Amino acid sequence: MKKDNFENDLKDMLDNQIVKRGISDERLIHAIQAVPRHLFVPDDYKPQAYNDGPLPIGFGQTISQPYIVALMVSELHLKGLEHVLEIGTGCGYQAAILSHLAADVITLEIIPDLAERATQTLNHLGIKNVSVVTGDGSMGWVNGAPYNAILISAATPGVPPPLLEQLAEGGRLILPVGSHGFQRLEIWSYCDSIFRVETSIPVSFVPLRGKHGWKI
Ligand code: SAH
Questions:
Q1: Measured in angstroms, how far is the CA atom of residue 176 from the centroid of ligand 1?
Q2: Hey, what domains does the chain have and what are their CATH numbers?
Q3: What does each of the 216 residues of the chain score in pLDDT, given as a tens digit?
Q4: Could you tell me where the DSSP H helices lie in 104-181?
Q5: 131 labelled catalytic
Q6: 208 lines ligand 1 (CB under 6 A)
Q7: CA 32, 188, 171, 79 torsion: positive or negative?
Q8: Ligand 1 neighbourhood includes 64 CB (under 6 angstroms)
Q9: Total-model pTM
Q10: Ligand 1 contact via 154 beta carbon (within 6 Å)
């Protein structure tokens, strides 16, 4: 497929899936514009890279639907100076978006081959402020804590307690909470030593594994 086609696909995706559905943060729109989504998906799926849905990335995992990536990132209210933790690197697409919006990003992936592939793609794009770590993100990553923003892109049975402990004062955490196949996005904020939670739209993510994830 020619480069031009991807440019048109990206423009259509931004207009019809992101802006029309109410995402208006200019910094986020520029970040989405700057990240070539087709470079993150396996060759067989490149023609569908900008479609309005998730796609397989191998090992039974998926890259999230573009709108869901945009919505989750927008709920973090990033201004540019934040230290961010992402759980579930997958192919690294969302980490690449975050890299444009925050000071630095630590992203954890439990499947070593996916972590390796994401590292290569991020390096290829010259993205220097993302560190990919292989490990169980349900425990968070205490070495880098506290974080101004935490994003979990796998379905959880409930908020993993270590992640609340690793959230900085003024911080925000977004994650899908529910059962296998059906969850709702929850947005947690931590202000004046009090946690508040809001519930957002229904979603369907692959399960979070590990100590505070699903035991399957
Ligand atoms: N944000 C990704 C999509 C993530 S899909 C993207 O932009 O492509 C969810 C990912 O979470 C999968 O790659 C899965 O392997 C990973 N995952 C599941 N449980 C995990 C855990 N406990 N720690 C870290 N990663 C986990």
A1: 12
A2: 7-203 (3.40.50.150)
A3: 444 579 999 999 999 999 999 999 999 999 999 999 999 999 999 999 999 999 999 999 999 999 999 999 999 999 999 999 999 999 999 999 999 999 999 999 999 999 999 999 999 999 999 999 999 999 999 999 999 999 999 999 999 999 999 999 999 999 999 999 899 999 999 999 999 999 999 999 999 999 999 986
A4: 112-124, 161-165
A5: no
A6: yes
A7: positive
A8: yes
A9: 0.97
A10: yes
